[in-house]
Amino acid sequence: MATAASYSYSASSMSKVMPFRGAKGGYRNEFLCSQSKFLRQTVESKSMFLSADNKYSRSRMQIRAMSVDKAPSFSTGNKFQLNDILEAQQFDRDTLTAIFDVAREMEKIEINSPGSQILKGYLMATLFYEPSTRTRLSFESSMKRLGGEVLTTENAREYSSAAKGETLEDTIRTVEGYADIIVMRHFESGAAKRAANTASIPVINAGDGPGQHPTQALLDVYTIERELGKLEGIKVGLVGDLANGRTVRSLAYLLSKYPNVKIYFVSPEVVKMKDDIKMYLTSKGVEWEESADLMEVASTCDVVYQTRIQRERFGERTNDYEKARGKYIVDKAVLGVMQKHAVIMHPLPRLDEITVDVDEDPRAAYFRQAKNGLYIRMALLKLLLVGW
Amino acid sequence: MATAASYSYSASSMSKVMPFRGAKGGYRNEFLCSQSKFLRQTVESKSMFLSADNKYSRSRMQIRAMSVDKAPSFSTGNKFQLNDILEAQQFDRDTLTAIFDVAREMEKIEINSPGSQILKGYLMATLFYEPSTRTRLSFESSMKRLGGEVLTTENAREYSSAAKGETLEDTIRTVEGYADIIVMRHFESGAAKRAANTASIPVINAGDGPGQHPTQALLDVYTIERELGKLEGIKVGLVGDLANGRTVRSLAYLLSKYPNVKIYFVSPEVVKMKDDIKMYLTSKGVEWEESADLMEVASTCDVVYQTRIQRERFGERTNDYEKARGKYIVDKAVLGVMQKHAVIMHPLPRLDEITVDVDEDPRAAYFRQAKNGLYIRMALLKLLLVGW
Amino acid sequence: MATAASYSYSASSMSKVMPFRGAKGGYRNEFLCSQSKFLRQTVESKSMFLSADNKYSRSRMQIRAMSVDKAPSFSTGNKFQLNDILEAQQFDRDTLTAIFDVAREMEKIEINSPGSQILKGYLMATLFYEPSTRTRLSFESSMKRLGGEVLTTENAREYSSAAKGETLEDTIRTVEGYADIIVMRHFESGAAKRAANTASIPVINAGDGPGQHPTQALLDVYTIERELGKLEGIKVGLVGDLANGRTVRSLAYLLSKYPNVKIYFVSPEVVKMKDDIKMYLTSKGVEWEESADLMEVASTCDVVYQTRIQRERFGERTNDYEKARGKYIVDKAVLGVMQKHAVIMHPLPRLDEITVDVDEDPRAAYFRQAKNGLYIRMALLKLLLVGW
């Protein structure tokens, strides 16, 4: 997994602390804080967030160790190899497997158990420039299920000093003084990377415009592994808006890491999967084909991944939207041809692209999928703040 | 109180978990979770919210037992007979008395005492489709005064996926994965019941449009009992907007459960109490009369319950509003004729229907009434999450 | 410091509880609560916020004493001489020094240490009638870093019952029932004082329109003392919008308390420092002069305090704004003439009045200044809730 440490943004995250390192001696804790990118995954470093005294931190580490000795797998204090969660490309197969193992541990944590306190004392700032109740609540629940605390801005774009013309970088430099980790949603592609390059604390990208939404990609793969028990050699049908849905694009990318996967693209003409992903899959030796026959694909696939046709992308072209929207619906008929072990997934929210009568079928996995977002985010918060 | 358990929505809350029960074995904790409607009022069940292991839960129960042994009355773990708080009609007189007893215990809880931790580890989601700072803060304060945590959406209507066309049911199925109880405010009458029929966790109706606002009704009755020391044989004057105020309607409904109560309706012609309530009271043998003379009513009543004339209901008819608004004001003169033991109540906010110089009089109970909302909500959260 | 106790609003805060004292015996805890203005700084009193029983409170005090015996300097329980934080004028030099000492203690608090729990069980309500993410997050982080909890309203003006026409006083009387301290931001000058005159719990002014923003003033002085190691005999250049910036006005006011301070005003013609402050400084024997030469001032000053030209104050006069805005920029050239020990400060947010290439210089203190806001607010919350 060492390779994971050598990503470009990892390098940039080192350069980012230089200005701080130059800071005048006045603030020793500031100085230590500026180092946190290198140290923070170890319990010691993080404990110094408000302290200039090493002895304190050590005693603090013992306190933690004690408080969780019933859950030895937690807080072993080994550095997590990623500084920030910015894009699906960060994750190699080993890292995915390791993160999924932690997510499984998270599923087992019960209320008021030692595990439920492993992030006690840590503060997460949810900096949302674009409202997204689902994603925000999922992250905040994850933090609180682990005993951590949350600072919320539901509409940073309108409320924050951004309205007065402050740069994202300046906002980050201020917020990093208030919290231990930043979860950011932004309307501009690349904003998360800019934030991470500035911050001396971890940044998680909760979606940056048309760009990336890596935690969604992770929870999708985790759900497939959870539902089917495997990822190798599976057949996945991606259905609906494949042109605009960043979810399906990231998913296709991550699936390419597993051998013998076959992907089917089923979408209306106007929102077909773009060539970059097709070419990428081919280059990785991943089999894929386009199909106009949902029933046939559903009958052969292990996963039918349905997505919402996003009206907002059609603008004035209402007819195109209505035509695209009605084309591929997952209903009882589709269920009828699906295999017993197969599952239906959807990133949610859904309109009518999956009919409500499908919900009761055990193969309807989309609400379990949403719940898995909780465990994946718990795992990532735990790994970024206290390490393995 | 067994009867209370046989309400229709209680039945529906059983049917609601069927789809989950059918869910494939993959997720044992999901399965247990889906059962929580039957078990959750016992401490064990709830402790399994993230667990598949019975032994854990038992140990957890002991931990809780220990942590509160100084306050034996808490968490005795007996099931609360209600699954959700949806409408005033749910409460028979015995249930009211029992809830009020718990509310009295809540008043005695001090900061950092064992009692202040009985909801530690529990997560409440406040899903507000319509902003209501007063009600939201009251619920969130109640949860935090008991050591619980909160996920907030101040404006779900605009921010949540509802904007993208997601159904309330889908939103609930997602949010129930993040929290242990949902407090919902909605603009549509009946929305709370729909949410409860979907959710596998308790739902509290914090007001659904013109529909119900049961916790307000409870705190009103609790305040009368608290202020007068009794509910039997009291005389209550309902003043102001009786046509649109759901508060006075629910209050009249609940008062009918106590013997020898007499109710006076004092309101402008345009916003008179509707016939359904009058007929209901008559059918229950509750004496009532309409009066145009506030002074006379005030001189005989134990409770003068003033309400705000709601401008928003008059639309263009500004004159009607102004006329209705000025008609019945509670001022020093009204105070002058009231009995020494009588009290003035108001659901708040108030405009000028009670003059400010009345506030200093001991009989002005409306701010104590607001504070009682805290204790009633603490009691309900405690009962729904950990039982008697 | 006794003098500090004899402020006019302190007197008013006594009169404010009279109505409550008259309250009927029904609610003993209410009665005690109403006294809290006099007692609350002692640990006992506050512990009664939900209790009517003295013996409880005593035991509670012991619990607290125990819980912090590793940090003896905390919670010694001596009354803080201020009831509310409303305006810079409240602070004499001794009080400032004492608050700064506590702020230094706050810098040393580490995660999960006893100090990080001194406000456990306390609830802060952030009542923001005007959004200000930076200030709100800073206060909420301060409360949570000390183990306290928060109730948030990001946009009270639009959401709260204020929209229905409720007076600020009524809102305060309701909110004081839910929380232990209120942090308020309002659009009207004087609103904080009105709130404090109503509330029986402490109120902190987080900015009231063109009025005051006392915690900003405190963190500015704290930062100077932190960066230079002294406040006596320093030379401070106030640059930019001196007419509208309440920050620089409060700063000038507080600096006048220290001997041999010299202040330079450097601003465009249209936004010059107003005469009231100039006259005040002269009356206090503080040397000051106006200058149009930023370079010369920068070369002699210990502190260059730059501010943003506030477009919103210029309305239609876009040309005036553009002219004013471009006039005095702090850049590498300015840095070049500044002394090695001098620092650049800015209340933030900044636009381009400080060029980004300045950030890396150790003398750029503005992000450390923002961080200091955390420690000052931690100190104030601690002092108002549990005393020295």
Series of H and E elements of chain A: HHHHHHEHEHHEHEHEHEHEHEHHEH
Alpha-beta classification of chain A: alpha/beta
Average pLDDT score of chain A:
82
Tally of discrete structural domains of chain A: 3
Largest sheet of chain A: 5 strands, parallel
- What is the subunit organization of this protein? homotrimer
Helix percentage range of chain A: 40-55%
Q: Total number of β-strand segments of chain A? A: 9
In the CATH scheme, the class of the largest domain in chain A would be Alpha Beta
CATH superfamily (homologous) name of the largest domain in chain A: Aspartate/ornithine carbamoyltransferase
Tally of contiguous helical segments of chain A? 17
Shape of chain A: globular
Distance between the termini of chain A: 13 Å
Kindly identify the CATH topology of the largest domain in chain A: Rossmann fold
Strand order of the largest sheet of chain A: 7-6-5-8-9
Rg from alpha-carbon coordinates of chain A: 22 Å
Describe the structure.
Three copies of one chain form a homotrimer. The first copy, chain A, has helices at 8-15, 18-21, 28-39, 43-47, 54-67, 93-108, 133-145, 156-159, 168-175, 191-198, 214-228, 246-255, 275-283, 294-300, 318-327, 332-337, 366-386, and strands at residues 123-128, 149-153, 181-186, 203-208, 235-239, 262-266, 287-290, 303-306, 343-345. Chain A is 44% helix and 11% strand. The longest helix of chain A has 21 residues, at 366-386. In chain A, strands 7-6-5-8-9 form a five-stranded parallel beta sheet, with helices on both faces. With 388 residues, chain A is of the alpha/beta class. Chain A is built from 17 helices and nine strands. Chain A has three domains: 1-81, no CATH class; 123-208, Rossmann fold (3-Layer(aba) Sandwich), CATH 3.40.50; 214-371, Aspartate/ornithine carbamoyltransferase (Rossmann fold), CATH 3.40.50. The interface between A and C is large, with 51 and 40 residues.
